[in-house]
Structure formats: C-alpha cells, structure tokens
C-alpha cells in the first residue's frame, strides 16, 4: 500500500541524513551535503549544514528551522539522549547539546569537535557506544577510529577495516566491546575492541563477499544478536551474531524504536523510495513521493503509541526535500 506525506520542507541543499531527537515526535536534525565542482580557479570543495528543525503541523509553515550550523558536508547524524554527533566530509566529528532556556526556543550548543582522519579523508558514518563514552567513526580510506567523547581524543590509531570506502559502522546495542563495519569491498565485519588503543585490530568475523558494497549495518535495539545488513544490491539481510555466516532471511533497515513493534523496519531504498517491512520481508507500506535518491529516514522518538502510526521523516538528495509522513 502506498501512502502520502502530511507536508514537505525544502532543505535548500541536498539532504542525505535525518534523525529525530530522543523523546520527541517533533524535533529532528537534518544534514545536507553540497558539492562544489572544481573550476579553473578553485579546487573541488564541499559544504554542509546541520539543521535543527521543529515540526508544527497545525501552523502554516509546518516546519520551523530553529537553527543552522555551517559545517563541512554532513554525512551522518546520531543522537544519544540530548547530545547529537555528526560526521563531516572534512574528516571531523562535531558534537552538540540540545538546550533550552526560559526565553529561547530549543537550540544546539556546540560542545566539541575532533578530527578523526588525515587531511583529504572523509568521515562517512558514526555510532555511539552503549554507555555514550565513545564514538566509532568510519572513513573513505576504509579505516575505523574510536573517539573518547569526554576528551575528544582518538583512542586508537585508525585501523583498516575495508579495502575501499567504509560506508557503514555500528556499535552493538548489548555489548560495549562489539563493533560492526561494512563497505565497498562487499564485506561486513565484526570487531572486538576491548583493547581500543591497538592500531592492529583483527576482525573476529569477516563475511563472504557480496555482489555489491555494504551500505548500512543496524543491530536490533530489541533482540540481542540480531543484525540487519544492507547493500547496493537492493537487499538487506538479517543475521544472528552468534552464527553470522548465513543470513536468517531478507528484510530491511531501520528498526522501530518501540518494543511493541520490534519486528517493524524502515528502509531508504535509494532508487526505489522508502518502505516499511516486517522481518519476513513483507512490504507493509511504501512511500514514493520523493523524486530523487532516497537517502535518509527515521522514526520519531517520542512516547510510544502502539495503537496509532508513528511519525516518519525522510529526505532525498538532488531535489533537496524533507517529507513528513506516518507509518
């Protein structure tokens, strides 16, 4: 069944990542990525913005831009409580706190910034550790690095995780020492990083090579050992970390935040819109209004209401569009 949006917001620049703030149905961060082609007088460069938005469905505007922070092109966004971290194309991680005063609306206060890669290397994806003390970052040179959030120092010299771009990285939701990665070499890997000071990490598991690059890895927040791995070949496979060599079934990507809907997943399908599926691979809903690459999508993180649909935010690249719908 195809569904329609409730409203649309023009993001001005190409949008590639979006995530709701935890505890909110109406507050989210959006990342944009604008490529400036090389000319005779200037080299290629990238620009981006981290935007804090609030949904106001009953107003004429529908969406209010509370704040925009100019950064290098934003590649990923991850919230933890009231703290948001984003990775950028200049190889940095930027951390900001969601704050509010009696006189000011919600705003982001930048608290830290750290370079996690050498000059010319892009930071592509990030994820928080289970306790929030560390952030793992993947890079365009195939490396991973672990950042200490309190000191904003890189705990580990970057180690090579992928032969090409490392598009995906995730921290296990139930283990503080397990990290997953995947990239353009078509493999995904499991790492035990208890010794995070070592620059010679060895993967505890390396998958068989897929027909296309790995684009996303998402451990279930509800079921221990369950992992979803997405690929350019238009499929997402479910794996059990205890026996990861063969997939359990084929399904989709972003887990619903409510335990009552633990088998519901949400996927950005790039050239095939957005879909809501269950863990058997059955498509429950599809959303096809975007006219460009379907890149970023997230469920609202407000109080769970199992009896009614959850708000969804999705963004697309070349048509620089954010759409709000429900599923």
Quick structural overview:
This protein has 327 residues and is mostly beta strands. Helix content is 0%, strand content 51%. The protein has a single domain, classed as YVTN repeat-like/Quinoprotein amine dehydrogenase (Methylamine Dehydrogenase, Chain H, 7 Propeller), CATH 2.130.10.10.
Characteristic terms for this protein:
0% helix; mainly beta; 30 strands; Methylamine Dehydrogenase, Chain H
CATH superfamily: YVTN repeat-like/Quinoprotein amine dehydrogenase
Radius of gyration: 19 Å
- Count of distinct structural domains: 1
Computed structural class:
mainly beta
User: How many strands, what sense, and barrel or not for the largest sheet?
Assistant: 5 strands, antiparallel
**What is the string of helix and strand elements?**
EEEEEEEEEEEEEEEEEEEEEEEEEEEEEE
Count of helices?
Answer: 0
Shape: globular
Mean pLDDT over the full residue set: 88
**Strand-residue proportion:** over 45%
Low-confidence stretches: 248-252
Give me the CATH architecture, please.
7 Propeller
What is the tally of beta strands? 30
Helix content: under 10%
Identify the CATH class: Mainly Beta
CATH topology: Methylamine Dehydrogenase, Chain H
How far is it from the N-terminal to the C-terminal residue, by CA? 11 Å
């Amino acid at each position: 069944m195809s569904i329609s949006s409730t409203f649309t917001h023009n993001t001005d620049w190409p949008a590639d990542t979006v995530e709701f703030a935890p505890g909110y149905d109406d507050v989210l961060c959006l990342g944009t990525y604008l490529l400036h082609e090389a000319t005779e007088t200037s080299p290629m460069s990238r620009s981006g913005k981290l935007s804090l938005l609030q949904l106001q469905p009953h107003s004429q505007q529908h969406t209010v831009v509370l704040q925009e922070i100019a950064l290098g092109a934003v590649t990923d966004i991850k919230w933890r409580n009231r703290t948001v971290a984003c990775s950028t194309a200049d190889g940095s991680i930027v951390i900001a706190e969601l704050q509010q005063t009696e006189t000011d609306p919600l705003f982001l206060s930048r608290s830290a910034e750290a370079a996690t890669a050498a000059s010319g290397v892009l930071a592509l994806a990030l994820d928080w550790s289970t306790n929030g003390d560390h952030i793992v970052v993947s890079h365009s040179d195939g490396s991973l690095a672990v950042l200490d959030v309190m000191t904003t120092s890189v705990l580990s010299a970057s180690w090579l995780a992928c032969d090409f771009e490392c598009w995906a990285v995730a921290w296990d939701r139930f283990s503080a020492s397990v990290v997953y990665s995947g990239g353009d070499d078509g493999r995904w890997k499991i790492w035990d990083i208890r010794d995070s000071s070592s620059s010679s990490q060895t993967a505890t598991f390396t998958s068989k090579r897929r027909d296309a690059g790995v684009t996303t890895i998402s451990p279930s927040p509800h079921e221990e050992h369950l992992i979803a791995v997405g690929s350019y070949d238009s499929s997402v496979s479910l794996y059990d970390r205890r026996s990861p060599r063969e997939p359990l079934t084929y399904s989709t990507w972003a887990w619903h935040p409510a335990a009552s809907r633990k088998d519901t997943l949400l996927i950005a399908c790039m050239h095939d819109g957005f879909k809501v599926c269950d863990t058997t691979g059955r498509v429950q809903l599809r959303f096809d209004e975007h006219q460009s690459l379907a890149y970023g999508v997230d469920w609202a993180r407000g109080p769970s209401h199992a009896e009614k649909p959850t708000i969804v935010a999705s963004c697309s690249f070349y048509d620089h569009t954010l759409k709000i719908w429900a599923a």
